[in-house]
Amino acid sequence: MRTIIFIVILMLCLVACESEPPAIAFEDLPPVGDVMRGAEIFEQSIDETPACSTCHRVDDTPLVGPGLGDYGNRAGETVNDQSAEEYTYNSIVRPANHLVTGFSNVMYNAYDEHLTAQDIADLIAYLLSL
After folding, report:
1. 123: CB partners within 8 A, 6+ apart
2. Which CATH architecture has domain 2-129?
């Protein structure tokens, strides 16, 4: 009986811990982003969110998060069956999905609630240009 109760409680906890779907789905992004605008978004806080540059450098130097040097060449090979664009989208809106070895899950996880679909597309375009 204890085992059944434990399993039921565990299942309820797992269901309760599931995260909400992103406010902006990958499929909702515009097909083209603006690299220059993405660079600006990378450097600034929008709607009181932390700027990407607070934790990431655009070279190989790690800060709180990994350095992004050569990111554009690495992103498409990071997760099987994900394009560079899709991996980058997930890294922005669901950073806990794929943690870089040696780094903890401390990245702000509500960018999808404060950035527009165009903002995210622009940021992706910029990151893939690195």
Report:
1. 33, 38, 41, 42, 52, 88, 92, 115
2. Orthogonal Bundle (1.10)
